[in-house]
Amino acid sequence: MLEALVEIGCLAKKALGEAVSCFAIVPKDCALADREDMPLLHDADGEFAATFGAASGMTWLIRPDGYIGWFGPTPSPEGLEAALGLIAEPTAA
């Protein structure tokens, strides 16, 4: 699962630029180890899950203004690419 999140994080950075920050929000008792390419934020009080109706595996693209730009039930590169195609201009390579 974390590998898929890293992959879509790379897609987001490619489309939107290096200013993009990617994190995995996990329950407080999650045993996953923090990674440099996908830092973990622990939802200690379950506030994120309660606010967004989050379930295991769901994925969000949160815009800088706090609005949800995209979400999916799984970390889907295809779903994110489709959303990015609607909201982002390709950056020069």
The helix/strand series, from N terminus to C terminus, equals: HEEHEEH
The share of residues in extended strands comes to 15-25%
Helical segment tally? 3
Identify the strand order in the major beta sheet.
1-2
> What do the pLDDT scores average to?
84
Query: Which regions are unreliable across 5 or more consecutive residues at pLDDT < 50?
Result: none
- Oligomeric assembly: single chain
Rounded radius of gyration (Å): 13 Å
Strand tally:
4
The helix fraction, in percent, is 25-40%
Shape: globular
Structural class: alpha+beta
Largest sheet: 2 strands, parallel
Tell me the distance between the termini: 28 Å
Question: Could you characterize what this model shows?
Answer:
With about 90 residues, the chain is an alpha+beta fold. The chain has three helices and four strands; from the N terminus they run αββαββα. A two-stranded parallel ribbon has the order 1-2. A two-stranded antiparallel sheet has the order 3-4. Strand 3 (about 60) and strand 4 (about 70) form a beta hairpin. Helix 1 (about 1-15) runs parallel beside helix 3.
Provide a short characterization of the protein structure:
The chain is 34% helix and 18% strand. By secondary structure, the chain is α+β, with helices and mostly antiparallel strands.
What would the keywords be for this entry?
18% strand, 3 helices, 93 residues, alpha+beta, two-stranded antiparallel sheet, globular, single chain
List the helices and strands and how they pair.
Layout: H1 2-16, E1 24-27, E2 40-43, H2 47-52, E3 59-62, E4 68-72, H3 77-87
Parallel strand pairs: 1-2
Antiparallel strand pairs: 3-4
Helix pairs in contact: 1-3
